[in-house]
Amino acid sequence: MTRLLLVEPEATGHRMVLYVRLIAEEALRRGWKVTLMTTASALAHAATQSVISALGSDLDIAKMPEIAREARYGKLQLLFGQRAYLRAFKQGYREYRKTGAADFVYVPYLNYIDKIVGLYGSPFGTTPFGGMILAAKFHHQACGIAGPGGKMDVVNRVLFQRMLRLRALVLATTIDEPLPKYVTQNMPALAPKIRYVPDVSFVSKPAQRQRARHALGLGKDHFVIASYGSLSPRKGLARLLSMFSAADLPRHFRLVLAGVQDGEAVQLIQSFMSEAGACRSQVVLMNRFCSALEEGLVFAAADTMWLCYENFSGMSGVLIQSAQVGVPVITSNYGLIDHNRAKNSLGLRWDDFLLAASPVPHFDWGKLESIVHFLKDSPQLADFALQHSPKNFGRNVMDTIDRVHPMERRA
Questions:
Q1: What is the CATH number for 257?
Q2: Taking the model in full, what pTM does it have?
Q3: For residue 377, is it left (φ>0), alpha (ψ between -120 and 50) or beta?
Q4: Same domain, 79 and 90
Q5: Read out DSSP for 204-227?
Q6: Residue 237's domain spans which residues?
Q7: 340, 400: one domain
Q8: How far is CA 50 from CA 14, 20, 206, 225, 394, in A?
Q9: What does the mean pLDDT of the chain come to?
Q10: Same domain for 225 and 302
Q11: Domain count of the chain?
């Protein structure tokens, strides 16, 4: 039986509960023997336990060393941190090989080691391996995607190229659709190693719209803009609050802020609420980690979801969840979020209804409402949701592994 080793040392975020589970489920369905190599701390986490519970005895477990967390941030700290992950991967795999063998190793978050693995070599010896690249952005400006750029783009491009040149690395999957196209144009010899896999997310407990609005204290005629997930200034919070500070804000507009607020967000919201006057009644605050039930209520109640990120060029699970429930999004002109919005007609930009930015922002409220109502439950949203569904994610990753593994086995 062909053996797949999944390496994921962390339990937080969606990589364990989504990536690991979905890939393992599909691999098992195809007849692979699957082992998860993880740390003791991750193994004790509820997220990992839910994966083990879902897969039962079909999933084998192997332990790897804990990784010391770097308290400081910066370029050198990033490299030191990746070196720690690389050592832990190498040591864990060495111990695993004493009692087992893997035909293929897959790292659901290859960014743990992507900057240094090309310099130090594979931590899995000669065993063919692959993984998911989630946070590359050195190619964005060349691909016409707005975002930060600079000298580090050149450095990161070189490090990425060195990683792809590793003999043992036979597959790099990515949720960044422009990246394989960039590699094909600029690194054609390495293009066969990289494959696009649409990201995945979903609303686990969808709700009925009328019930959701009632639960959140919203009326059926309200126009609801919602922000979901961890809330910080980089989500364009200042812009969002400026809308609800406008003197001509329509009385039927409502704002739902659902998710844990960081310190800066708390200060911004407190300042807004102290000056909002009667508009305070148009805001629903849920400053907490939302349950699956609350998540479903927020998405069902919303007319549009707020995704106006600043200084963030990555992807968003909320973009996929919004499409799943047929709700368009509002974005800034920035990163993969806006790239996907524009390409797939998933919503509108902030600029589309902003009449004047200064000295006081003015908005075309009617245009905002009309575009949102036109796009709601559109075929484009449904198609995007299907492409990014859990079933397709596991299948897409395993399809790419199945393509490269037979070639490696014959080599």
A1: 3.40.50.2000
A2: 0.89
A3: left
A4: yes
A5: SS---HHHHHHHTT--TT-EEEEE
A6: 209-387
A7: no
A8: 12, 11, 20, 32, 17
A9: 93
A10: yes
A11: 2
